Amino acid sequence: MDRTRAVLLGLAAVLLAISVVLVSPFFDFVFLAILLFYPLNPLYDRLTEYVRPRAASAALVAGTILVVVLPALLLLRTTVRNVMSILSRIRSGEITFRRLEVELAELTGIEVDVAGTLRTAAREIQFGAIDGVLGVFGTFTHVLLGLALTMFLLFYLLIDTPKLAAWLRGTVPLPDHIQAELYGEFEEIMWAVLVSHVFIAVVQGLIAGVGFVALGVPNAVFWTVVMVILAVLPIIGSFLVWGPAAVYLFVTNQPAAGIVLFVYGTIVVGLTDDYLRPIVVDRYTETRLNPAVLIVGILGGVYAFGFMGIFFGPVIISSLRAVLDVYRREFGGNDGYST
């Protein structure tokens, strides 16, 4: 390697590191733009047959704001309002946990002051202090800026994807057929993870919602929508709603309904993730993605990248396997192993 090449590569590495630092506060929103791009790109290709590319992209971005962004913000606002209402009822003593405390004492032999603990926690959640107001304002501003960035990136991803693909083909030092293989594998994995997450979340949330309606949980339709969104988190997603709902039924003098909901959620709702996710992933990929790899990728992705890591964690780990498979096919010879 001559000195010029070394200097250029070193400069590129330094600028890449600085660029990562600059983008890191908005990683979630960059990932969101990429995530939205995949289902919208086929629609963009259809629209460009009738209108100019910029008009097609602008229409899809506007539709995304109306169909996805605004309803999500409204749902978040309503969820916060409902949670704060419940906390207010706990603070005032309207909601008590006496029956639950008695059951826990009989089961464990230990006196547990559930009501007192929750009332203390509820009192600590205050938004009147200056620090709290500034924190909420800062978060709100960050989210608005991030969503604006997402829509901006989405607009140009839709328009400039052919240019980006051509630039990558000319810049990445790999033969064209290997690049085509890798891009194909990545797109296949991305679709498998995206479809499996969305499909499983909808099915799991609706199944849990049926239990809510049958057992008389208040605001069942609203909490079903919340469970559909949270169910993208494997194992614990929908439990974050139906678990507290079971406790709510128990402490509001409906112990039988609470127990039934807990059993229903554990067995019926919980098993949908275990059985359906591998089926959906197998449907969209030629090589089977091990469910354990998906779970590790999801949980690790959340820790590394935040909420969007739910989608991109499994993609990154699965892409590693795809790269190794391409390497084996190109340079490893025929070792008798097949996927």
State the gist of this model.
The chain contains 12 helices and no strands. With 339 residues, the protein is mostly helical. It folds into 2 domains: 21-165, no CATH class; 172-333.
- The number of helical elements comes to 12
Largest sheet: none
- List how many beta strands DSSP finds: 0
Instruction: Report the span from N to C terminus.
Output: 37 Å
Beta-sheet strand percentage?
Answer: under 5%
SSE pattern, N- to C-terminal? HHHHHHHHHHHH
Tell me the structural class. mainly alpha
Could you list the spans in which at least 5 consecutive residues all have pLDDT below 50?
127-134
Taken together, the total number of domains comes to 2
Helical amount: over 70%
Task: Compute the CA-based radius of gyration.
Answer: 25 Å
The 3D shape can be described as globular
- pLDDT averaged residue by residue: 76
